[in-house]
Amino acid sequence: MPRKIIVVTAAYGHDRIAAMGGQQALLPIIANAGADGVEIRRELFDHTQLDALPELARQIAAHQLEACYSAPEPLFVEDGKLNPLIPSLLLEAHQLSATWLKLSLGHFRSSQQFSLLQQWLAETEVALVVENDQTNCGKLAPMQRFQAACKVLNLPVTLTFDMANWLWVDESPEAAARVLAPSVSYIHVKAAVAHHYHYRAIALDDAEPRWLELLKNLPADAPRAIEFPLEGRDLTVVTRHYVTVLREV
């Protein structure tokens, strides 16, 4: 069975998405490029669009795409408790007919509230995946502690492995892959280069082959998402190129 390729709407850039009228305008591009799904980003919605999730879900289905939903929210807030917004975010993901909801880890301290999270997840068919972000909460040590706690307590939460975010937090992506790979169910494919005091994501064709070697150390059956810049005069052609690359490597 061919591996799934997902296109993250943010890859087209906030300004271009706004000029096109919103994320729904990208659906024909993504579908015609041969992708299997689209990652919808909550931060790219205005209030009107957020109220129209069922209609967006219908459009996604009409283009025969799978949906996943990314929200710029942590699983655990600063006091170490579960983010109280999670039930409403799971509901939004349900309205979008999304297969999974992606959050960052946030301030994970202990598994004391796992039973509550288990309860929330039991009330929805939406899966939860947790990503390493570009903050200290996304460093390897807390991600590894969370991974271990989920395994011990049999919590049905898996990981999104963002291949380049490790660079922002001074971690080795390769070391992270060795430890976290068994729990990874979704991969954000991204390459980055040093830029001023941080990093900048770049297209794969412009990157060193490190990303490809790293990808080989992650689960081959995990959906791969394009989260690097997709730019050019013909966005369908550009997108199709990388969909083909990531399906074949």
From TrEMBL:
Gene3D superfamilies associated with the record: Divalent-metal-dependent TIM barrel enzymes (3.20.20.150)
InterPro entries in UniProt: Xyl_isomerase-like_sf
MF GO annotations: isomerase activity
Keywords: Isomerase
Superkingdom of this protein's organism: Bacteria
Protein name: Sugar phosphate isomerase/epimerase
Annotated organism of origin: Buttiauxella warmboldiae
Native organism taxonomy: Bacteria, Pseudomonadati, Pseudomonadota, Gammaproteobacteria, Enterobacterales
